[in-house]
Amino acid sequence: MANKSVWSDNRFWQRTATWVTGFAAVLLIWLTFDTSAQISMGTDEDLKQGVTKRVPGPTVINYKIEYLMDAKRGHEVPVIGGKNAEGRSAFQEKEKFFGRDDWTEEEAGALLHLGKLGSQAKNCMNCHTLLGNGAYYAPDLTKAWLDPAWGPEGSLQAMTGKNTKEEAMAEFLQHPSQYPTHERMMPNLGITADEAKGLVAFLKHMSSIDTNGFPRNFGKIQGAVHGK
Amino acid sequence: MASNTLNESKQLATWYFTFAFILFGAQLLFGLVAATQFVMPGFLFEILDFSVARTLHINALVVWMVFAMFGSVYWLLPDETGINTIGIKMGKLLYWVFVAAIAVVVLVYIFVQVGPADQTTIWFIMEGREYIEAPRWADIGIVVVALGFVANLFLTGMKGKQTGIVTVLMADMIAFAGLYLAGMFFTDNISVDQYWWWWVIHLWVEATWEVFVGAIAAYGLITMIGAHRKVVEMWLWIEVAMLFGSGILGMGHHYFWIGTPEYWWEIGALFSALEPIPLVAMFVHVLYDWGKTQGAEEEAGNPASVINNKPAFTWFVLNAFGNFLGAGIWGFFHTLPQVNLYTHGTQFTSAHGHLAFFGAYATILIGMMYIAVQGKNNIKVLKNTKSSIWAVSMIAGGVMGMTVALTIAGYVQVLVSRAQMGATWAGYFDGQEGMWFAQGMDWRLIMGLVTFLGFALLAKDLLTTGKNPVHER
Asked: Cys-Cys link to B335, which of A187, B272, B370, B372 (CB 3.0-4.6 A)?
């Protein structure tokens, strides 16, 4: 045992494993504090003051939301309430959501709460992806609110016979199998009118989350305009 | 193992393995339903929809693996510690609690499926979060059962001989149980939701479960080929360092696009790119120990094979390679953010998921089932049979076939739905209608059927091989 090398010593490797694991875990916890602060939900005050949050407050549903190329960051970002001189969110331009653009923080928060609960209670994630996570049987919902198909010229809005995006989406969610868009259909999940409203608010809110440019080229049907 | 009555801990292990195997069958059946729906969308529409079939497919997967993991620990504990497992009565009680809870959850998934958008659904029907859909009451039950299991492991490990393998398992299993708590809360903020959701999913399958596999492989090498414990345990510690060193921060690759800051691109890319390294090491380690032990025996004039359980060892070697291929290679394919921007949320992920869960976990847990068959029947050398060879070939071939088919389908999605069309509703269905995508789905279903036939043969072999007279007793 006199010239025993440290490299063949189990105690040495046990300690190495402990230190490496401890170091990685501490780093993860430290980063979690930083990330948690950055992804905490914003407030109505933030929106009014023009503070950009990665996850805006629920009253973002009162604003127009776009998904535009940010030259500096090199990818698309959500632009809320029109853009300012630098091309960033101006938080000015409102957009009616079910006929109103003055949803209070409490009302909008309650809608979002209902929608998020609904997204889980109806198991959306086991057909769709949300923020790209879930199942692959149906389209990604991350930016579904911004899908041109639901817009004024879009086939999906036309199909439901409604005049606004939110009403079209809510109608579809309540009676999905009445509106077959593809051989693969969405089943009826017993979604009520209130729940549908909440779900659409949840989708509109999700489209305002800064996802670092995922998905790329959303809604730019002409081709890979921002391909890199 | 000389006595004719099976040690109580090992008996409990066989219960765990049995229920695990039944759930394994359920996983494959519901997988076939979901795969059929890709090919024939009207199949069971509004009766057992894709979302229900898929929930059952992935939940049965996770739960059978957890059952087989608990079973593996109960099996090896008496061998490693040299004493009877402490708290075995509680272990048996918790087993039945666990089985009953799973049965209720599955029946609710099948017959209730979804609920109104309120907390009662979250508590009693389903939480709607992929992989951890189980309702909150069941979450609490799972934590109680897991803590009981961890308590038995700790009490036995501290009283008996605390080998390196047992020490690793103790540390690993407490982290495994504790991490589940990160998935037990509701928030309106989907970015926060998914941030913590990954703490459960990623830190299970890319950290604690991988370390578990390292410990089981170490146990298998010692019991099946008589590898030197000191060498095996040194490798195990090196593997733990590499697996946790890369896997914990490798979590960053799930934080590219969920609302989290950009620095996760660099952290996720770097550490997850390192994740395959321990998997290469584990593969080399298994082959090296096998060759070394066999070589030493041959040197000593004993040319007989050192392997005392052929089918189990086959599955262990397949594990070493499958882990590297499925988790390592297929994971690395799409782990860099530049690539993941287009592959995230496509069948590419699904291809990786199939090969990785199979290669890294299903294989070694099936191997442990063969070790249990050997021990239960007092067999000195368990040999391969025709069905054991056909089973392993058809299952491995079937899963590999599904993986290739899904990878090709994933390419179509990346090119058409993502790069070209930008992930809209229309873009999504353009991709799904691609010829290569559609054929990929056909082949996935065919290969799924091959896998299922292999499973049937495996069931037959596990049930009958113990009484087969070909083995040395």
From this structure: B272
